[in-house]
């Protein structure tokens, strides 16, 4: 039963999660933490941090971890394949149509209105992460502000920011 649940949850996320891994985070969190309660909010934040640091898309890494935590290796395979399957099938169909009609005003219009929705999903994921599980001390707010400033204004490499934040957290505890 858990395999079917994992497959269904991550298939839905893969089917409706436009905009890439970061845009899917709010959907994954809602299903995994709120609906199925497979992970706590704090555990989900840890999974995101690890998923961000490991190679590969964050949504796939998260699906793999959640699947593994619930049903071992087979669960991770089900969750990961379910997340990727809709994208693969849709990309085959959409690319065939897109290249045939890419100069159409209707296609251009659709793309113009999808981009703000993707930005909104990414912002929603960021806001969902701004809770008491992730901001436990005043230093958390300082790291948050410094990371935004360094990344947005100075174009600092996100990997470097994650490593520095991890070092700060390690040395303080």
Write structural notes for this entry.
By secondary structure, the protein is mainly α. It contains seven helices and no strands. It has helices at 2-16, 21-35, 41-53, 58-101, 105-129, 138-154, 158-172. Helix 3 packs across helix 4. The chain is globular and about 55 Å long. The N and C termini lie far apart (40 Å). The mean pLDDT is 90.
Question: Care to give the gist of this entry?
Answer:
This protein is mainly alpha-helical and 173 residues long. It contains 7 helices and no strands.
What is the radius of gyration? 18 Å
Q: Strand-and-helix sequence, N→C?
A: HHHHHHH
Q: Find the structural class using helix and strand composition.
A: mainly alpha
Largest β sheet strand count, sense and barrel closure? none
Distance between the termini: 40 Å
Beta strand count? 0
Descriptive keywords:
single chain; 173 residues; mainly alpha; 7 helices
What layout of secondary structure does this protein have?
Layout: H1 2-16, H2 21-35, H3 41-53, H4 58-101, H5 105-129, H6 138-154, H7 158-172
């Amino acid at each position: 039963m858990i395999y079917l649940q994992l497959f269904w949850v991550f298939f839905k996320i893969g089917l409706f999660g436009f905009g890439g891994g970061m845009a899917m985070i709010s959907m994954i969190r809602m299903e995994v933490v709120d609906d199925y309660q497979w992970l706590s909010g704090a555990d989900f934040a840890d999974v995101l941090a690890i998923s961000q640091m490991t190679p590969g898309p964050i949504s796939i890494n998260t699906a793999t971890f959640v699947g593994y935590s619930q049903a071992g290796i087979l669960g991770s395979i089900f969750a990961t394949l379910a997340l990727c399957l809709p994208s693969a099938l849709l990309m085959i169909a959409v690319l065939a149509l897109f290249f045939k009609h890419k100069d159409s005003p209707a296609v251009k219009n659709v793309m113009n209105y999808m981009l703000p929705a993707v930005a909104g999903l990414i912002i929603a994921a960021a806001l969902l992460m701004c809770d008491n599980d992730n901001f436990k001390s005043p230093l958390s707010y300082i790291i948050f502000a410094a990371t935004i400033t360094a990344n947005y204004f100075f174009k600092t490499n996100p990997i470097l920011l994650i490593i520095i934040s991890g070092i700060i957290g390690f040395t303080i505890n």
